[in-house]
Design a protein that fits this description.
Structural class: alpha/beta
Radius of gyration: 23 Å
Shape: globular
Number of strands: 25
Strand content: 15-25%
Largest sheet: 9 strands, mixed
Distance between the termini: 55 Å
Mean pLDDT: 96
Oligomer: single chain
Bound molecules: malonyl-coenzyme A, adenosine monophosphate
Length: 505
């Protein structure tokens, strides 16, 4: 039987070659990967999973968690990774919306998640960061030679939730071919081979760490250091025995500030890739000055995988995201009319290609609203194409804050703040932050006589929103600036508070 994505992974896998090494010294060969993912797929099958069923996973980063992703691909399941920082209130929505067959969580979340899973008819198993948990216990007795489920190019491989402008998260449905075509292209354009060793310090519940980093390594038969989180000291040390690093801009900001970053420290590396948020030209310059490497910036999103990349050979221009990838069509249009604009003009970025997702889970109207009639996906990013063909992202048409590479939709945070007693209304904005790129900031109007302060607001959000979605600062004002239509003028707020984080760090 053929399994579109896993057949390609299997094809690149040399059983004796190293796949993963952790900082604790645990290692996985490609043979181990095939066996463990096979056993886990067997366990899913024995639990009663059927192809097309969703498996929602909220676990710490570990090689076993990656094996579970591969097991889902092999079993024909739809892998649904969830940020480890999500609270039970957030998880209730994701589980209710996706109706998974199985929820896999850390042992410490089990008691809290059990009633939620039960409410929506899902089973619960556990997986912990050290290779334990009930799911691995079940897998132990399974045959490592699992017969992979038959999956074609259009079979669903994953659903990744992205927050929506209306505050309701949307599940982006990604097919086997979305993932395979994009990772194969990236492997080729970034010249990955089996000799590469990647420093993998990203979380694996998002496109960047899961699909860009892990799938590219898998399809090259390369290896990676698998780190629980980013630590600049550790990254610098591992550069001695690695060839590539992928990161969000905050990684590079922190490395560029580190005394240990020198040409010698980075001499063994061949490539540094940045994405998920804008890399400031000054970070690009500072990093190049100290390390001798021009960071390669690329642009993507959950719905589309990667769209553009600066060239591997050729000028990597700071402040641009390079050229459309082979097979990807990108155009810039008038946001109002949808008419294509000339090069040099700024408008809405639209993309089409085998990388673009199938639609939002159970939201046909939302899906339809974000595609043009000719199949181009409307990204919500504003940009232009310069005379040399480089794409520049110049802003966002969507009300989105990107903090340290995590997307936060203000509406979701505003809805929570507005429910706190004493709040009249709020506006959540992102303003320049030296470490996270944008710092999430809440501007709040309180009721006359209400005794509200920053701590009360933050405490009110604690159990409702993941930590990274909680504002770094809460500011109180008498009224929000509005235009004649009554719409809050967030640009005025962003200008007013532009210097808020300037002195931090
Ligand atoms: C952590 N915190 C954050 C935060 N990360 N707050 C805002 N934004 C973030 N990104 C919180 C912590 O909980 C902590 O709170 C405080 O901020 C400081 O934490 P820290 O120790 O400085 O953070 P750290 O653990 O070092 O994490 C920062 C980071 C991490 C940048 C390394 O956020 C990260 O790995 N980001 C990557 C996100 C990513 O993979 N994005 C890809 C999306 S895919 P307190 O109060 O507890 O101290 C995508 C498509 C594409 O966008 O194109 O790739
Ligand atoms: P996500 O929904 O988490 O996948 O985030 C996707 C969004 O991140 C895109 O729509 C862009 O707004 C932003 N993004 C990703 N890469 C870049 C980049 N290199 N430069 C600027 N913005 C980026």
């Amino acid at each position: 039987m053929s399994n579109h994505l896993f057949d390609a992974i299997r094809h690149a896998a040399r059983p004796d070659a190293l796949f993963i090494e952790t900082t604790g010294g645990r290692t996985w060969t490609y043979g181990d990967m095939l066996e463990q993912s096979g056993r886990l797929a067997g366990a899913l099958d024995r639990l009663g999973l059927r192809p097309g069923d969703r498996v929602a996973v909220q676990v710490d980063k570990s090689p076993e968690a990656l094996m579970l992703y591969l097991a889902c691909v092999r079993a024909g399941a739809v892998y649904l990774p969830l940020n480890i920082a999500y609270t039970l209130a957030e998880l209730d929505y994701f589980i209710g919306d996706s109706e998974p067959f199985l929820v896999v969580c850390t042992p410490k979340m089990r008691d809290g998640l059990q009633p939620i899973a039960q409410k929506y008819g899902a089973l619960v198993e556990t997986l912990d960061a050290d290779g334990g948990g009930s799911l691995l216990d079940l897998a132990q007795d399974e045959d490592p030679d699992f017969l992979d489920a038959s999956c074609g190019p259009d079979s669903l491989a994953a659903i990744l939730y992205t927050s929506g402008t209306t505050g309701r998260s949307k599940g982006a449905m990604l097919t086997h071919d979305n993932l395979l075509s994009n990772a194969s292209t990236l492997r080729d354009v970034w010249q990955f081979t089996a000799d590469d060793r990647l420093i993998h310090a990203l979380p694996i519940f998002h496109t960047h760490g899961l699909f860009v980093a892990s799938n590219v390594v898998l399809l090259s038969g390369a290896s990676m250091y698998f780190l629980p989180k980013f630590d600049p000291d550790e990254a610098l040390q591992l550069m001695q025995t690695s060839t590539v690093m992928m990161g969000v801009p905050t990684f590079y900001v922190r490395l560029a500030q580190h005394d240990g970053l020198t040409r010698q420290a980075a001499a063994k590396m061949r490539l540094f890739v940045s994405g998920s948020a804008p890399l400031l030209a000054e970070t690009h310059r500072a990093f190049a000055e100290k390390s001798g490497h021009a960071i390669l910036e690329r642009y993507g999103m959950t719905e589309t995988n990667m769209n553009t990349s600066n060239p591997y050979d050729g000028d990597r221009i700071a402040g641009t995201v390079g050229f459309p990838l082979p097979g990807v069509s990108l155009r810039v249009t008038d946001p109002e009319t949808g008419k294509p604009l000339a090069d040099g003009e700024t408008g809405m970025i639209e993309v089409s290609g085998p990388n673009v997702f199938k639609g939002y889970w159970r939201m046909p109207e939302k899906t339809q609203a974000e595609f043009r009639a000719d199949g181009f996906f409307i990204t919500g990013d504003l940009g232009k194409i310069d005379e040399r063909g480089y794409v520049h992202i110049v802003g966002r048409g969507k009300d989105l804050v990107i903090s340290g590479g995590y997307n936060i939709y203000p509406k979701e945070v505003e809805t929570e703040i507005d429910q706190i007693p004493g709040v009249v209304e709020s506006a959540v904005i992102g303003v320049p932050h030296p470490d996270f790129g944008e710092g999430l900031t809440a501007v709040v109007v309180s009721k006359p006589g209400a005794s509200l302060d920053e701590n009360i607001v933050l405490n009110g959000l604690k159990d409702r929103l993941a930590r990274f979605k909680q504002p770094k600062r809460v500011i109180f004002i008498d009224e929000l600036p509005r235009n004649t239509m009554g719409k809050v003028q967030k640009n005025i707020l962003r200008d007013t508070y532009a210097g808020l984080y300037r002195k931090e760090r």
